[in-house]
Amino acid sequence: MSLDSEEFGKLLAVIGDEVGFLSEIHKYKSIYRILPQQDTCVGFLLGGIGEVNENREANFMVVEKETTADQIEACFKKFLHRPDIGIILINQIYADMIRRTVDGHVLPLPTVLEIPSKQQPYDASKDSILKRA
Fold first, then answer.
1. What is the DSSP string of 30-92?
2. I need a labelling partner for 77 at 20 to 30 A (CA). Which of 15, 25, 105, 108 fits?
Protein backbone atom coordinates (compact mmCIF):
# COMPACT_ATOMS: atom_id res chain seq x y z
CA MET A 1 0.00 0.00 0.00
CA SER A 2 1.45 3.35 -1.04
CA LEU A 3 1.28 6.28 1.39
CA ASP A 4 1.27 9.29 -0.89
CA SER A 5 -0.28 12.63 0.01
CA GLU A 6 -2.80 12.49 -2.84
CA GLU A 7 -4.34 9.36 -1.34
CA PHE A 8 -4.19 10.32 2.33
CA GLY A 9 -4.05 14.12 2.45
CA LYS A 10 -1.93 15.13 5.43
CA LEU A 11 1.40 13.95 6.80
CA LEU A 12 2.56 13.08 10.31
CA ALA A 13 5.74 14.39 11.92
CA VAL A 14 7.60 12.73 14.79
CA ILE A 15 10.39 13.93 17.06
CA GLY A 16 11.57 11.07 19.23
CA ASP A 17 13.61 8.02 20.08
CA GLU A 18 11.26 5.05 20.64
CA VAL A 19 10.09 2.47 18.15
CA GLY A 20 6.87 3.74 16.59
CA PHE A 21 3.50 2.33 17.57
CA LEU A 22 1.50 3.15 14.45
CA SER A 23 0.62 -0.06 12.65
CA GLU A 24 -1.80 1.08 9.94
CA ILE A 25 -3.13 4.26 8.40
CA HIS A 26 -6.63 4.11 7.01
CA LYS A 27 -7.65 5.81 3.79
CA TYR A 28 -8.74 9.43 4.20
CA LYS A 29 -6.73 9.80 7.40
CA SER A 30 -3.68 11.98 7.77
CA ILE A 31 -0.20 10.84 6.94
CA TYR A 32 2.18 11.76 9.71
CA ARG A 33 5.32 13.91 10.18
CA ILE A 34 8.13 12.39 12.18
CA LEU A 35 10.77 14.17 14.31
CA PRO A 36 12.25 11.31 16.34
CA GLN A 37 15.58 10.11 17.55
CA GLN A 38 16.88 7.04 15.78
CA ASP A 39 14.72 4.22 17.23
CA THR A 40 11.40 6.03 16.89
CA CYS A 41 12.25 7.27 13.44
CA VAL A 42 13.37 3.84 12.24
CA GLY A 43 10.18 2.28 13.59
CA PHE A 44 7.99 4.72 11.68
CA LEU A 45 10.09 4.45 8.53
CA LEU A 46 9.88 0.65 8.63
CA GLY A 47 6.12 1.06 9.02
CA GLY A 48 6.06 2.93 5.70
CA ILE A 49 5.50 6.44 7.05
CA GLY A 50 8.65 8.07 5.65
CA GLU A 51 8.32 10.38 2.68
CA VAL A 52 10.43 12.86 0.76
CA ASN A 53 8.31 15.25 -1.29
CA GLU A 54 9.06 16.83 -4.67
CA ASN A 55 10.97 19.63 -2.91
CA ARG A 56 13.23 17.00 -1.26
CA GLU A 57 11.71 17.74 2.17
CA ALA A 58 11.47 14.70 4.45
CA ASN A 59 8.57 14.14 6.83
CA PHE A 60 10.90 13.20 9.66
CA MET A 61 13.86 14.47 11.64
CA VAL A 62 16.23 12.08 13.38
CA VAL A 63 17.24 13.49 16.77
CA GLU A 64 20.69 12.34 17.88
CA LYS A 65 22.99 13.18 20.80
CA GLU A 66 24.47 16.13 18.92
CA THR A 67 21.10 17.62 17.94
CA THR A 68 20.49 20.95 19.66
CA ALA A 69 17.24 22.39 21.00
CA ASP A 70 17.49 25.11 18.35
CA GLN A 71 17.59 22.51 15.57
CA ILE A 72 14.59 20.66 17.04
CA GLU A 73 12.67 23.91 17.39
CA ALA A 74 13.47 25.00 13.83
CA CYS A 75 12.25 21.67 12.45
CA PHE A 76 9.15 21.74 14.68
CA LYS A 77 8.27 25.24 13.46
CA LYS A 78 8.83 24.18 9.85
CA PHE A 79 6.43 21.26 10.34
CA LEU A 80 3.86 23.58 11.99
CA HIS A 81 3.78 25.76 8.87
CA ARG A 82 3.64 22.99 6.28
CA PRO A 83 0.07 22.66 4.96
CA ASP A 84 0.54 18.95 4.23
CA ILE A 85 1.12 18.01 7.90
CA GLY A 86 -1.83 16.93 10.05
CA ILE A 87 -0.13 15.40 13.12
CA ILE A 88 3.24 15.94 14.75
CA LEU A 89 4.51 13.24 17.11
CA ILE A 90 7.27 14.35 19.43
CA ASN A 91 8.98 12.48 22.24
CA GLN A 92 8.18 14.30 25.46
CA ILE A 93 11.87 14.63 26.30
CA TYR A 94 12.32 16.76 23.16
CA ALA A 95 9.04 18.62 23.70
CA ASP A 96 10.47 19.64 27.10
CA MET A 97 13.51 21.09 25.32
CA ILE A 98 11.22 23.38 23.29
CA ARG A 99 8.31 23.53 25.77
CA ARG A 100 7.53 27.21 25.18
CA THR A 101 7.09 26.62 21.43
CA VAL A 102 5.07 23.42 21.91
CA ASP A 103 2.76 25.03 24.48
CA GLY A 104 2.41 28.09 22.26
CA HIS A 105 0.83 26.04 19.46
CA VAL A 106 -2.91 26.11 20.14
CA LEU A 107 -4.37 25.44 16.69
CA PRO A 108 -6.14 22.12 16.12
CA LEU A 109 -4.00 21.33 13.06
CA PRO A 110 -1.41 20.14 12.99
CA THR A 111 -2.16 18.27 16.20
CA VAL A 112 0.89 17.82 18.43
CA LEU A 113 1.06 14.54 20.35
CA GLU A 114 3.74 13.94 22.95
CA ILE A 115 4.90 10.33 23.23
CA PRO A 116 7.16 8.59 25.78
CA SER A 117 10.83 7.85 25.16
CA LYS A 118 13.42 5.38 26.37
CA GLN A 119 15.21 8.07 28.36
CA GLN A 120 12.24 9.50 30.23
CA PRO A 121 8.81 8.13 31.19
CA TYR A 122 5.72 9.97 29.99
CA ASP A 123 4.50 12.70 32.38
CA ALA A 124 0.88 13.65 31.72
CA SER A 125 1.25 16.85 33.76
CA LYS A 126 3.62 18.26 31.10
CA ASP A 127 1.53 17.32 28.03
CA SER A 128 0.28 20.48 26.31
CA ILE A 129 -2.90 18.85 24.99
CA LEU A 130 -3.85 17.38 28.36
CA LYS A 131 -3.25 20.73 30.04
CA ARG A 132 -5.87 22.28 27.73
CA ALA A 133 -8.40 19.44 28.09
1. PP-EE--BHHHHHHHHHTT---B-TTS-BSB--B-TT--HHHHHHHHHHHHH-TTEEEEEEEH
2. 25
